[in-house]
């Protein structure tokens, strides 16, 4: 990468030093064209093509570069599909875990409220058959430790994906290097004259960057399906916990709803009786 940037920088310096040259179209062994190098600078270049083999190598390298870019675009699409599936499962499992926490919080809240209502009803003699049945359901204990254990297991497995995240960060860095190397080499092939030795070195440097990028992507794409399979199993376990929670909460919610209808009625009757007696 440094050699590519050095050549580009040197070329900009050389352009400032260039003296007026003959750009006559009468020269048969030269080809002229105008190339926009940047937004603010237009460079008139003359490319010497005396050596036909050199020109052929340039064209072959351009074609090879274009084919490499197309192949990498296709491989990146396949990788992106895998990574999107992984991210979707990560977000879904996090939402399931949050919902499990909400279910545990509601369960504890119902039991706590049921316990206080039971103490009040016994102390103030506000119990009838309906209230007694509801309070019995509300005060049934649940094995919160089992839910906590299963939730903790899911959390540990979810947080065990740090290696994949680190590998993907490395992949993004190598992808950035590849895009930059591709862009620089393309510029050199299109608007600059580089001797054969320098071009060979630049091509070797590009190939090394490409190989590192491909190697990292292959490792990531080989591991992602395994992790995705593990995440699907985690999702199944999480949904199973939620199913049991909802079955438990449905019974508690029904009992609480009945209690919140019968308990106030009982309390109102007691208040009316108390007011009538005081009169």
Q: In words, what does this structure look like?
A:
The chain has helices spanning 2-17, 52-123, 129-138, 144-158, 162-191, 196-278; strands at 30-36, 42-48. The longest helix is centred in the C-terminal third of the chain and has 83 residues, at 196-278. 81% of the residues lie in helices and 5% in strands. The chain is built from six helices and two strands. The chain has a single domain (52-278), classed as Substrate Binding Domain Of Dnak, Chain:A, Domain 2, CATH 1.20.1270. A two-stranded antiparallel ribbon has the order 1-2. Strand 1 and strand 2 form a beta hairpin. The model is unreliable at 15-50 (pLDDT under 50). Helix 3 (129-138) runs antiparallel to helix 6 (196-278), helix 4 runs antiparallel to helix 6 and helix 5 (162-191) packs antiparallel against helix 6. By secondary structure, it is mainly α.
